[in-house]
Amino acid sequence: MTGVYELLCRCVQVLSDMTILQRRIPPSFRDPASAPLRKLSVDLIKTYKHINEVYYTKKKRRAQQVPPEDSSTKKERKIYNDGFDDDNYDYIVKNGEKWLDRYEIDSLIGKGSFGQVVKAYDHHEQEWVAIKIIKNKKAFLNQAQIELRLLELMNKHDTEMKYYIVHLKRHFMFRNHLCLVFELLSYNLYDLLRNTNFRGVSLNLTRKFAQQLCTALLFLATPELSIIHCDLKPENILLCNPKRSAIKIVDFGSSCQLGQRIYQYIQSRFYRSPEVLLGMPYDLAIDMWSLGCILVEMHTGEPLFSGSNEVDQMNKIVEVLGVPPSHMLDAAPKARKYFDKLSDGLWTVKKNKDVKKEYKPPTGGPGGRRAGEPGHAPCDYLKFKDLILRMLDYDPKSRITPFYALQHNFFKKTTDEGTNTSSSTSTSPAMDHSHSTSTTSSVSSSGKAALQGRGRVTTRTTWSNTRVKARTRTSWSSTT
Description:
It is a single chain. By secondary structure, the protein is α+β, with helices and mostly antiparallel strands. It is about 35% helix and about 10% strand. The chain has 15 helices and twelve strands. Strands 1-2-3-4-6-5 form a six-stranded antiparallel sheet, with helices on one face. A hairpin with a 7-residue loop joins strand 8 and strand 9 (about 245-250). Helix 6 runs antiparallel to helix 8 (about 285-300), helix 8 (about 285-300) runs antiparallel to helix 11 and helix 9 crosses helix 14 (about 445-450). The radius of gyration is 33 Å and the shape is elongated. It starts with a helix and ends in a 10-residue tail after the last helix. The model is unreliable at about 415-420 and about 420-480 (pLDDT under 50).
């Protein structure tokens, strides 16, 4: 009995010592049962069972969230950017979503090759903004960073926002997308033309647009900037207010600085300059060519040169302005794409079997729909025509610059017509293109006939329908 009693006493003592030792273990000390080594050895089967339970639970939850698909059309589903992007690297926009506890997404405004633009409400500043969401891909991010740098540079030199360039408020990264926050503007000039049923706006309103755009190009041409927009077109010119004539240039996604040209294939085709079509070096003058095309289109309602491809585009230009100067074609890498060189050293347009009829540009003049209205006298059209021909000079070295364009007589006259776009856009005459003595020699004989009041093109309705389908509209605006 004595031996049994002593054994019990020893057991009690051991248990007491173990209790004391457990009290000395710090709270942060890991339970040996949860150690990875134990889970992958002694408790291996138990670990496998737990993994299976978690896996099948998640699989069942996903199956409940995704609607069933027909087995014949079922495709492998891929997840992009943790499910935030689609297969085109665009962010999947959800209306009502709030970003950074600040921006509440309202709606999608537009899409383009760069990404998307959404309308959002900034709860910090209590204002509506437009957010440009760049695609989640390195190439687009790199180009957007160039755009960002140029926008910040322009903002730095336009602190008073008086040069008709869209204002960048700030930028941020959100779920691997670079986001640029801009002021929210109204609809673009192409939308304005569409609201006129492509009949164009008054000459006075065209003048207001022209003066602002020349001022913007003069700003971009300052030595500190030397920025080439590279994609000036009606879609990239937005009204600040739908009932006023104030405008701003947007979308510097293709822009570059002089001496830092990146791309050779630039500018939308209708507004592409001859030097770009010919593969020649380009500078800020390409934007002036685009502006000349835009101004004619704003007044007539129709594109001045609406080529279906580059060859057709050049042919349409030649029909109006004649063959480019020999010194340009001799130095142009792509001259033989459009022209043949004769034995006497002169150039002639290549014969194109696909071209079946002569191009007829938009025509008209003082006898048009606005005949007798203030600001539409023959002298007004002569001034307009002269400015346009100087903007459409083949040679970029002699093409009119923004500074001298602003000194042109077309801007000297002030009119009594208001700036309300809703009342200024209902009707307009086509442009009178009769020539001044200083520019007649540069225009072909067929172009002269077309420009001297032969009547408007009779296919406007067909063109308008085609154009709406052909163009990919991208806007940073909202009409609401």
